[in-house]
Amino acid sequence: VTPLSLDKSDVLRQSEVFAGLPEIVLRNIAAYATVRRLARAEMLYAEGEDAWGLFVIASGEVRTVRQSVEGREQVLSTETRGAALALVPVFGGGPYFSSVIADTPSVVIGINRTDITRLCEKHPELLWNVSRVLARKVRYCAELIESLAFRNVDQRLVHHLLCLAEQHGVPYNGRGVTFELTSTRSEIASRLGSVREVVSRALSHLHEKKLIELRGRTVIIPDLPALRGFSGESAHVTRGRDLSHGQLTRNAAI
Amino acid sequence: VTPLSLDKSDVLRQSEVFAGLPEIVLRNIAAYATVRRLARAEMLYAEGEDAWGLFVIASGEVRTVRQSVEGREQVLSTETRGAALALVPVFGGGPYFSSVIADTPSVVIGINRTDITRLCEKHPELLWNVSRVLARKVRYCAELIESLAFRNVDQRLVHHLLCLAEQHGVPYNGRGVTFELTSTRSEIASRLGSVREVVSRALSHLHEKKLIELRGRTVIIPDLPALRGFSGESAHVTRGRDLSHGQLTRNAAI
DNA sequence: CGGCAAATTGAAAAGACTCAAAGTAAGTGG
DNA sequence: CCACTTACTTTGAGTCTTTTCAATTTGCCG
Q1: Residues near A73 by Cβ (< 8 Å), separated by ≥ 6?
Q2: What's the CA gap between B134 and A136, in Å, rounded?
Q3: What is the pLDDT, as a whole number, of residue B68?
Q4: A149/B252 CB distance under 8 A
Q5: CB proximity B122 to A under 8 Å
Q6: pLDDT at res. A95
Q7: Is the C-beta atom of B196 closer than 7 angstroms to strand D?
Q8: What pLDDT score was predicted for residue A231?
Q9: pLDDT greater than 90 at residue B70
Q10: Closest nt to B192 (CA→C1')?
Q11: Nearest to B203 by CA among B192, B194, B212
Q12: Which uninterrupted H or E stretch holds B145?
């Protein structure tokens, strides 16, 4: 899976932040970029450490997480080939704001903080990419916040299953989908902001309601639209409805 | 409160994204920037609408929110003079990702999407600011996520009170602080991802535990360190501790 | 087969949400 | 100045969700 030889400039060319830079520049960056190989469950960096620079994933899959004092873990995102890590401390200042742990054996290439700064000064198109990527991260975070604030675990689980179906699913019987569930209940739980037992029960609920079928590691969603209906997804709220604190804004929204 | 005359370039000069641009450029932007006055509870834009451009707050206070289908509201942030709104859709694409509602009568100045693009091309230092601001938003969001995932309402309330104390508090009896609570229970609740009754009870709990004192709208925190102790704040977790799903990463973290 | 991590299930308790009722506070108009 | 309205707050009771702990059970791998 992990290639032994690695074309660094190739990785950069296909990455979300370095895409679009001239070939010579890519090669140049590649020349002083460092390579780090991570075993499964190895940590690239930890929340609170001083930020050395940023990383681009060459291969594998990593998760960015925050952990509570009691030892619970909340997954913020899962990143794969081409993704950039640690943009936040590099461009916003401060230490790393999350920890990064490899979900599979992974290879990342690292670029020093000062090198990045120099590069951006020389190539403003890089900053466009950075802004775009950061903006999307904000949007993604906002969705996670909404999810945690408004939806119960069952609904969050459905949302997660639907995401997996979209990424790895293959059609099944017309309106259905099927895919492999590679993660454990605990791993799912930390994505949903819950604990393994609750996820286990939630899967049972969905099974009882005939919304999913479980055969070992494979999940079958017999009726995709039906499952979507259950997730409580925000079909966009129309403007002007009174949705605020008590009577406060009655008649006041445009 | 809201000045009738408004020096737009003055606002821009002191804003988080336009700060540092040459005076002539600021004046130039100001020339084609539009002005919009908002009454309390008026909406600047709604989640899901097409993004027209970005806004800079000249005066007043607004909140950015997401709302659920059932009508609950989750506040993502509160922004004041100098803050930029709608960076996410402008730089990341897509529609507005949150709604913006005025908490007090406010004035915002708006800059068209295409104008922004042109400006950034001409003045890359603008993109540095944008990246910095977006990066900080991500960090802030991550903190909110952690809060929602790990802490109960009482702890989130304490966190919020501590933030208010930091912003508006005046010293009280040595280790204490006092400040005015301007928002209603409902407003606080939507910041915490809860409902008014629960906030009301949470305040009572804190009062019973002698951690706070309420006199009308003024809050007294007699012992700041004691309250801090209650909030379950993440004193940074040290690297290498086993905090993950069951036994999965035992011995594997660096 | 044994050993072990993962998953399930039950039962109890804590936390959060909802609804309903009653209390408080500030502002308005007589 | 008082009664009245209106918005906001508090409190109680019932219910649902989520967490926690403990006890099994499942499934995998050597």
Answers
A1: A65, A66, A67, A190, B243, B244, B245
A2: 10
A3: 87
A4: no
A5: no
A6: 97
A7: yes
A8: 84
A9: no
A10: C16
A11: B212
A12: helix B124-150
